[in-house]
Amino acid sequence: MNGLTNRTILVTGASGGIGAATVRELAVTGAIVYAGGRDSRKLEGLAKETGCLPLTFDLSDEESIRAAVEGLPLWGLVNCGGFGGEIATPMETDIAVFDRAIAVNARGALLVTKYASRFMVEAGEGGSIVNVSSQAALIGLDGHISYAASKAALDSMTRTSALELGKYGVRVNSVNPTVVMTEMSASYWGQPKIAEPFLKRMPLGRWATEADVASPIVFLLGDGASMITGVCLPVDGGYTMC
Predict the structure, then answer these.
(1) Catalytic pick among 147, 168, 188, 239
(2) Average pLDDT in the 114-143 region?
(3) What would be the CATH architecture of the domain defined by 8-181+209-236?
(4) Is 239 a catalytic residue?
């Protein structure tokens, strides 16, 4: 089994698609799940569905994160909260959008890790952290300058955190998914001139689902991945190998 029964795990971004799917999969394992996010209404609905514990906070605000996370008896963490940014070239990019992408996707994840890992280290029972990154951190994608930079920073933090926390038995990995076709992503990726060449290049030739990403997250959290740390795992239908 995955050994997650009765282990306490925080999932940020739980009011979004991948985060909510991860909460649902973790609930099935018997884990005690804190569902973090900004949309209290969605979190309350997820709590009624899964039995998770809703936790409202803002990833761009250190005090909000500290107040919510510091002292939580966490064994595991999934940094899934994120900001999609914009589609723009380096010549056109809005630096305010870049700053927000870094603030949420990189700085926010680091702050949650900062306060969560303190308890893990003090408890002395090991732990597991999974960061939700992106294929954009692994290859160049048109129009993704801000988002890619933030996720590349997150991958770097994954490796450094794995090095720093390994001595305490805490593993740190990331998953790097391809496009999950949500209502938000459809405005760009749903355009035939964008979608068709992208899917033609991908060996599996389809968009990812939330469950396609949630399942590897749960695997990396669990005992089946007990010798895996510092890995950035593409969940991309083979796109980044081509």
Answers:
(1) 147
(2) 97
(3) 3-Layer(aba) Sandwich (3.40)
(4) no
